[in-house]
Amino acid sequence: MDPTRAFVNKVKRLVVGTAVVTRPDGRIALGRLGALCEQEFIRCICSFSDLRSPNPEFDGKACAAVGQSSLMALYDAMFSQLDITSSQLLVTDAFFGNEAFRQQLSDTVNSLLGQRVIPIFNENDADSSGIFWDNDSLAGLLAYEQKADLLVLLSDVEGLYSGPPSDPKSKLIDTYVKEKHQGEITFGDKSRVGRGGMTAKVEAAVYAADRGTPVVITSGYATDNIIRVLQGERIGTVFHKDAHMWTVVKEVSAREMAVAARECSRRLQALESKKRRQILLNIADALEANESAIRAENEADISAAQEGGYDKPLLSRLALKPGKASTTNNLDIIFLFVLLGFDFCIHGCIFMTSNQKISSLARSVRKLADMEEPIGHVLKRTELADGLTLKKVSCPLGVLLVVFESRPDALVQIAALAIRSGNGLLLKGGKEAKRSNAILHKLITSAIPDSVGKKLIGLVTSREDIPDLLKLDDVIDLVIPRGSNKLVSQIKESTKIPVLGHADGICHVYVDKSAKMDMAKRVVLDAKTDYPAACNAMETLLVHKDLTHHEGFNELIRALRHKGVILYGGPRASTLLRIPEATSLHHEYNSLACTVEIVDDVFAAIDHIHEHGSAHTDCIVTEDEEIGETFLHQVDSAAVFHNASTRFCDGARFGLGAEVGISTSRIHARGPVGVEGLLTTRWILRGKGQVVDGDKGVNYTHKNLPVVDGDWMMVVHS
Predict the structure, then answer these.
(1) 227, β-bridge pairs
(2) N- to C-terminal Cα distance for the chain?
(3) How much is the pTM?
(4) Angle CA(443)–CA(449)–CA(451) in degrees, nearest 5?
(5) Nearest CA among 620, 573, 571, 613 for reference residue 596
(6) How far apart are CA 40 and CA 718, in angstroms?
(7) CA-based nearest residue to 616, from 644, 641, 652, 633
(8) Cα atoms in the 13 Å half-sphere on the side-chain side of 144
């Protein structure tokens, strides 16, 4: 729980003010209304809504009169599913001028709540000169009158910003201090919901807070924000009468972090190659020299996670225990690329064990340091005209924001890769690894010389900073959400910055009728059981129909079951093998399970892969060279194999060195991608005073010039 939100522990009566139950066209937003009802079940809540006319030509009072009955019917239906009854209380401004009515209203509300009935207040276009003038001011008034412990005002943005939310320079204000913020805030256009916009919400929040009721303004579009507020998370903007007395720790804003990372990255790129290399070697030395301290912090994280009831897979990923490192010597790094919509498979593409020694991490960093210099590589030279030479050179992307999972070893590897490629980096790790991440970040930044700056790599410690970072499309060049598809989708919807998501790894092995069945068994077992959670593991086994009566096929099925693989069938295989039918033929199990299906021939297998696959890695096992070539040329996947396990689709096994991931996109790179994926290009033109002048005096030659081995130049990314 955030210390500034500790007051929520005492909340027993909550008022929710919302104008987000309608869509822009004025119709009810059923999804948001349902989520609101489910959250209101947590506490006894007084809720009220503003039903307004989406068309200024219509009479607002008439629209509200029609809409209120529909809204209440929906409230009744939804609350009844939770065994809760709702009631409607219509109020006007005049009622609150009567002391007897106010007491009667208070008694009525107490009686309703005592009978598990949620009162829903509605107002019908109040007079702007009265005691309340819109639903927000009514919310503040009710919070005061009903002696609420907390008022939550739901908006269409995350909270109160220092300027218009659409302005990238605007910062979300965590705690509103009237003495500080009252004259500093610039309000943008009126909100799409409600009548008064953010100005009205702030006025209502100040009114209630000054009279003793804390207020939080937050987004009503998220389905769980009320619950998160009640759990004490630092979301939205809090208003509290004692806020001016709270000790405010000087925080570095999201923009300041990103700008600092960019400035440091430019200084890093200006260093000689050997000095950049030395930074990585110093990091490796620091890891080994501080192994005991790293271990202690990591064990503290593990203990806290165990007490918190985290599952075993997460605990395994969290641990940095001594153990045998993978022989692949691969890096668990994320591919970072500049194009929005670049599909990428991250999950499961890991070949270093989570219990690796710190020394194994150090070796990985040293291996990265020994790679060929990636920055300033001259890729192409062209003579445009006499004395006018053009070069295409490699350069870093700029500033990267990586939101990653619980693996603290990922922090080391991502940071090392960013340094090698000259990129600035902002990291947000999981809270369960906060101690491990903190000490690793400290050790890494301590190895960065002052001439570059330790702010080259920033560690974001609060989840609440992410919305601010996602607005910085003028400073951050790429966002990489490393986690679930839900996380990727949420971030894509929340930012204009290019986002690198991850695609499914639905890999197929097709066993042709001419296959040697002993070979097929080896390939299939390895593809499925060598590392089932990997993105290059087999998820679907396709078998030629002529093999269904072959003893080798029966042996293959028995071998899979012997290895503990749970089998699901397509329409044909489920009947033949008497196994459960798969719910979907496009399914990534990431476990000891797979789908089996029978196909007529290689063309049916190819069609199946194109319809149900993810264009990752697909394999054919066959002795027929013509059939094999057909498969290799017609399957449109990033990697296509003949008589070899799909598990070979890996940067280290391909000899690329440090793999940053496996791309399933058709743009820029496909399959295992090395360090070059962190780079983009620039054009450098050298002349002798030439001018275009309508191309009158320019004799273009466009002659390709040789690129000499070792042709590099210092390039500072702008």
Answers:
(1) none
(2) 40
(3) 0.59
(4) 150
(5) 573
(6) 50
(7) 641
(8) 18
